[in-house]
Amino acid sequence: MTALLSIRDVSVDLSAGGWFGGTAPLNILAGVTLEIVPGETLGLVGESGSGKTTLARAVLGLQPISGGRVRFDGRDLIQPADFRAIRSRTALMFQDATASLSPRMTVGEAVTEPFAIHGVAVNNHRDKAAELLVEVGLPPEMAARYPHELSGGQARRVGVARALALKPALVIADEPTAGLDVSVQAEILNLMADLKDKHGLSYLIITHNLALVRHVADRIAVLYLGRLVETGPTRAIFADPRHPYTRSLTAAEPKPDPRKRRTDLAIRGEIPSILRRPNGCEFHTRCPLARDICRTQPPALKDLDHGRAARCHFAENTTEGGRHELEY
User: Fold this and answer.
1) What is this structure's pTM?
2) Are 218 and 204 in contact (CB under 8 A)?
3) CA-to-CA distance for 258 and 124, rounded, in angstroms?
4) How far is it, in rounded angstroms, from Cα 268 to Cα 250?
5) β-strands 309-310, 227-233: how paired?
6) CB atoms within 10 A of CB 261
7) What separation, in Å, do the N-terminal and C-terminal C-alpha atoms of the chain show?
8) Could you read off the pLDDT tens digit of each residue along the chain, which spans 328 residues?
9) In Å, how far from its chain's centre is CA 20?
């Protein structure tokens, strides 16, 4: 199947501007390659500062890339005009749903604003706002409210309605359940799944919540220090993670059974600074499986079985020896 979104070897460098005692650029993303096919949900996971949101901004043209290529539905996105041309077919759900809504606009004005921005004619804005709100499980009369009158779950649903206004092909959701109660999180995830089936949407979901991606994602991509370290089908990665970092993330999932409570931390040490990236494998400073080769030679992203890939010297044989040594 032809990819809806293709990201090839994308890098993003930001100027330090002397803030950190030097003028060398900060390498935020380093050669990321990903694809999303129509109707697919890709979960992008990693610790805070791993470059997840920067990648999303680069995909939408909100952050200039330093190298590589972004392609959407067969079209190369190079100039600002290219990104503007596909803007109505993409949508962004912001991490802070309430803050993303203008306090001066009613809910009805907010969800119909995309039509005005893109010059799409609407016969009756009030009816259109009611239609969008009902689709995300909100009553039509909520169109008269202002953002400060909404709960967190209601604000999140308004964000979904606004994102879907122009019927995009791709929705990028940045931490779509952040700050919500567990029961409300489930409601939002089920809503997103229903809308995906109804409209044939593709999702790029950015999160550090592994329980979320286990529930909704078809595939997972794992970032560490702005570099892709593992990707593959969700079930396969949770059943048999091939990169020690991925294994650490899955081990860090909260266990509801108190009898299985861990007494140690799944991921040891602090994430290194992008100003001083470690030599060799950048995860070796925190990896319990690190060997001499890991400290000196950077591993390539290796293609594995069943559409999987991992950036580890021992990706092929972690099942045999690595997992036994990596105990939590």
Assistant:
1) 0.89
2) no
3) 55
4) 14
5) antiparallel
6) 9
7) 39
8) 789 999 999 999 987 665 555 566 788 999 999 999 999 999 999 888 889 999 999 999 999 999 999 999 999 999 999 999 999 999 999 989 999 999 999 999 999 999 999 999 999 999 999 999 999 999 999 999 999 999 999 999 999 999 999 999 999 999 998 888 888 988 999 999 999 999 999 999 999 888 889 889 999 999 999 999 999 999 999 999 999 999 888 877 766 666 665 555 567 778 888 888 899 999 999 998 889 999 999 999 999 988 899 999 998 865 443 443 444 3
9) 28
The amino acid at 231: T
What are residue 29's phi and psi, to 5 degrees? -120, 140
SS3 assignment for the chain: CCCCEEEEEEEEEECCCCCCCCCCCEEEEEEEEEEECCCCEEEEECCCCCCHHHHHHHHCCCCCCCEEEEEECCEEECCHHHHHHHHHHEEEECCCCCCCCCCCCCHHHHHHHHHHHCCCCCCCHHHHHHHHHHHCCCCHHHHHCCHHHCCHHHHHHHHHHHHHCCCCCEEEEECCCCCCCHHHHHHHHHHHHHHHHHHCCEEEEEECCHHHHHHHCCEEEEEECCEEEEEEEHHHHHHCCCCHHHHHHHHCCCCCCHHHCCCCCCCCCCCCCHHHCCCCCCCCCCCCCCCHHHHHCCCCCEECCCCCEECCCCCCCHHHHHHHHCCC
**For residue 90, how many C-alpha atoms fall within 13 Å in the half-sphere facing its CB?**
23
